[in-house]
Amino acid sequence: MTGLTRMLAGPLMLAAMVLTGCSNSKTDIEPFELVKTYAQSLRQPSTPPISNEQIIAIVSQKALETTEPDTPLISIRIPEVEFYNVLTVIAENGPHSTWAPWGIVDRRSMVTKNGMITATRALGHDLMSANVDGVLALVQAREEGAAQYAQRYLNGASQILEAKSTCEVSRGYQKMVRVGGVERPALQMFSSCISANRQFVDLFLVDASGRILESRQWIGPRMGFATVQSLR
Amino acid sequence: MIRKSVLFASVLAASLVPFASWADPTGRLLTDRVNTYGVPSGLIDMPTAEMAPDAQVSITVSHFPGYTKNTATLQILPWITGSFRYSGIKDLTPVFDVYYDRSFDVRFQLLRESDYLPAVAVGLQDFLGTGIYSGEYVVATKEFGNRLRVTGGVGWGRLGSYNSFATIRSRAPFTFAAVGTGGNFNIQDWFAGDMALFGGLSYEITDKLSLAAEYSSDNYDFEIQQGVFKRSTPWNFALNYKPTKNIGLSLFSLHGEEFGLRATLSLNIKEPPVPASEPAPLPIGVRDPASLNDLGWTLDKNRQAFTQETLRQLLEQERITLEGVTIGARTAHVRVINGSYISEAQALGRTFRVLSRTMPGSIETFRVTLTKSGIPVMTTTFRRSDLERLEHGNESEALAAAGFSDSLSFGDLPDPLPGFYPSFNWSLSPKPRFYTFDPQKPFRADMRLVATADYNLGRGWVVSGESSVKLFGNLNRINRPPNSRLPHVRVNKQYYNTRYGPTIDRLTIAKYARLGKDLYGRFTAGYLEMMYAGASGEVLWKPVESRLALGAEVNFVNPREYDQMFGLRTRQTPGGIIPQWNGHLSAYYQFNNGFEAKVHAGRYLAGDWGATLEVARTFGNGWKIGAFATKTNVSAADFGEGSFDKGIFFTVPLAWAIGLPIKNSYSDTLRPLQRDGGQRVDVSGRLYDMVNQSHRPGVADTWGKFWR
Fold it and tell me: Is the dihedral of CA B329, B335, B340, B345 positive or negative?
């Protein structure tokens, strides 16, 4: 936040707090929570002592050292919403995995289907769900072709909006992926998608078994791209 | 060659305008600018065929010497705009220093813009008021390139007063004498009288800066006659500046004589300032196939108690209150109270997620009953395997898999947890009180500290009270002696409103009940509202799947003492005796585009008989804006200024502004005038508003929030 918006947040929070009032209900937002949020926003130093990249590096190292070798770990960067984190799987449902920040209690999450992002929660203008099967099949098989792709969002009035695109999947170069505990050759797969009023290109690095090791994926118009790296 | 230069020009244009926020492929011809009347228009004093983006709300103040107009405008639908205006004109009449006037406008875009044809709109200005601004128009606007818009139209009334070329029927010019009680539809005058042409251009220099020039067909006849306005040319010019998305400023010259300023503040209801930032929901707990037939837990009392306690705690973590639970071998049924989420679908989604994480694997059916004021309102049923299968699918599949039914159809409807009732809730918060449109001072307000307490005894019995004390404000300066010819049922409000207190704003005992399938009942007795004490009974028929509801209400009332303590006043008032009995039959309908209509017909507080029509647009995020009108068997002369009761009402949810799950909101009703005809008792806990959002149509409207 800039200095000005941070200052403006104060009166807004105060107004909100005043309007909220106080009550004995256990399920209500307490004015104190709002004060805390505001105080935290003020406390944010204008230049963080360590960069987001350094944080990811340190947390990755720690996570790799302290977890079992079969614990899934990824790093994620979504610059648009300043989400830089190391995530681990908190739940699985068939091919879908729900990821949440590793090592801290943080109620933000993301869902992937075999490495392709299908949903985010509490990250901002969330991706609610997605149909990725066509593109996923081509990318995992490292084959070229065309497929349909759909992403769904909530508008400000709590209704679902669906953005449908047509994607052209193509092969790129072989590349060596070296991140965290991963060191493997992979093939670049591009997915160029066109929807009614937008186009974007996703990039996946896929190993010989069809596993997505690294990717840059379009989440949506308000959240932009996410960069995901497997740490194991 | 020509093609090349066109291509070059369009590339250049495209590079100069990287993103025009109002560019709209649907041909609606959108603008976020308004004219001096505060209605969407790229011109200055004249209308265009442009529309604001859907659900846009704007507040505009425009001023030139002696003349101020304040207008609130809502884009009701993509093709309908509605405006309410409060304006002041200095020295217009010898009676007032500043003459204040209220007026309503409505505009319809009948044709969208296409490649070759312009957008066309029809509008009524001041169609329900004194008629001082009254004028009608048919106008066309076409965009050339993406910066220049050209408008031409024909106007009647005010907009047909300069250089008119024809006349249809006759129309009397505006005079104060002809206004009478005002506030009526003057249908015979619409599109009648002299007609004239107007037109103009608007040009965007950059995204923030634009110019406008127009030829005005408004001759300001009445103002010139009263000597408050001069006019030397029909031409007006303006320079507009938009520092941010939500603010518009304009400097304009009017008829070669006056300079004026306009400022507009706008927001879009569909675009909250912050994204919803509730914590992520819990993932669905997917069962281990081995657990599906394990019924060992049914013999283990400890395990059952543990399950129930975990359920309660996890729900509390999700800000949902567990009221009761029945756990069978294959079915679990919970009763919950949603005190946090505006979308009931979101509360349901979170409850089902918690159930999937806490219930033993053998349970395949989940039922969630929402309760309000201690009575069950609707039960939603899911097969657990559907929840597991659809967690990451398309939201509409989950809606199709859900079952919605009347809670009374279930034999396993849980009883409240032991010790849950009586439950006591209190709150303390400030609340403003407004008094508007007093000619002496158009806007007054008090800030009060309000304490509420609800003692919920269970089985639908609720003792509830509200008390307040004034913190600061200037309502005590109101001095408008009531002159009503009807029993003074509301004009006396100023004697109540202005008290410092502490006052008892409400103190009632109520019984809510399910009278049968699809039937709800309420009985309330005590100090019902600020002005009346008595008893109120209501019955509502509303099937859970239905968009239609029918209701009936009967009230027995007596006016309260002005100090709003325990005493009662005489029913005798200068305008007659306040009758004790009043009541209504009501019909409610929720359309599937978010609109809601209510009709109440019956006897009003002053003993007048008639009907009220209320139409509101409701949004999934909790916003609600609507208008109402009441026509009773009271003549316009007896009703007094305004002719009949009408106004607009709105609800602004706090959650919209802060992005957190909280149900608090601010609601108010704005009337051009408060008179005594067509007034209802303001009893709280009316059944339709209590149950409607929890029934299937309301839940389905915000189903997108189910998995959020």
Answer: positive
In a 3-state reduction of DSSP, which class is residue B571?
Answer: coil
Q: Do B393 and A129 touch (CB under 8 A)?
A: yes
Cis peptide, bond prior to residue B442, ω within 30 of zero: no
How many interface pairs between A and B have CB atoms less than 8 angstroms apart? Answer: 144
Instruction: Calculate how close chain A gets to B22, using CA atoms only, in Å.
Output: 14
Q: Supply the pLDDT for residue B24.
A: 56
Burial class (CB in 10 A: 0-12, 13-18, 19+), B26: exposed
Q: Which of A29, A117, A222 to mutate to test the interface with B (most CBs of B within 10 A)?
A: A29
Nearest by Cα to A153 from A142, A164, A168: A164
Closest Cα in chain B, distance from residue A185 (Å): 31
Between CA A136 and CA A112 the distance in angstroms is 11
Residue B295 near residue B101, CB atoms below 8 Å: no
Q: How far is B233 from chain A (nearest CA, A)?
A: 45
- Which helix (DSSP H) or strand (DSSP E) does residue B11 occupy? helix B2-16
**Phi and psi, residue B624, nearest 5°:** -150, 130
Q: Which residues contact B587 (CB under 8 A, 6 or more apart)?
A: B548, B549, B550, B551, B598, B599
Q: Which regions of chain B are under pLDDT 50?
A: 1-23
Structure tokens at A4: 């000005």
Three-state SS sequence of B467-528: EEEEEEECHHHCCCCCCCCCCCCCCCHHHHHCCCCCEEEEEEEEEEEEEECCEEEEEEEEEC
Report the complex ipTM.
0.90
Chain A: nearest CA to B117, how far in angstroms?
24
Closest residue to B270, CB basis, from A28, A122, A155: A155
Chain A positions in Cβ-Cβ contact with residue B450 (cut-off 8 Å): 21
- Residue pair A134/A124 in contact (Cβ under 8 Å)? The answer is no
CA dist B646 and B650 (Å) reads 14
Q: What is the pLDDT of residues B345-359, one digit of tens each?
A: 999 999 999 999 999
DSSP B273: S
R_g (Cα) of chain B, nearest Å: 29
Q: Which two tokens stand for residue B352?
A: 């089902």
| pLDDT at residue B521, as a whole number | 98
Containing B637, the helix (H) or strand (E) segment is helix B636-639
- At B696, is the secondary structure helix, strand, or coil? helix
Q: What is the end-to-end Cα distance of chain B in Å, rounded?
A: 55
Tens digit of pLDDT for each residue in B454-485? 999 999 999 999 999 999 999 888 888 888 89
Give which of B678, B694, B382, B683 is closest to B543, Cα–Cα. B694
pLDDT at position B125: 94
Interchain proximity B278–A29, CB inside 8 Å? no
- Burial environment of residue B95 by CB neighbours within 10 A (0 to 12, 13 to 18, 19 or more): exposed
The two tokens of residue B155 are 């106007």
Instruction: State the DSSP string of B343-371.
Output: -HHHHHHHHHHHHHHHS-TT--EEEEEEE
Question: Residues A177, A196: contact at Cβ < 8 Å?
Answer: no
Facing residue for A125 by CB, picked from B25, B275, B703:
B275
Q: What's the rounded Cα separation, in Å, for the pair B683 and B681?
A: 6
pTM score, whole prediction: 0.91
CB-CB under 8 Å, B281 with A121:
yes
**Residues 6 or more apart in contact with residue B569 via CB below 8 angstroms:** B558, B559, B560, B561, B562
And the tokens for A9? 């947040």
Write the DSSP assignment of B682-695 as a string of letters: --S--HHHHHGGGS
CA distances from residue B696 to B338, B507, B541 in whole angstroms, order as listed: 16, 32, 15
Chain B residue closest to A93 (CA)? B286
Q: Report which of B119, B36, B108 is spatially closest to residue B75, judged by C-alpha positions.
A: B108
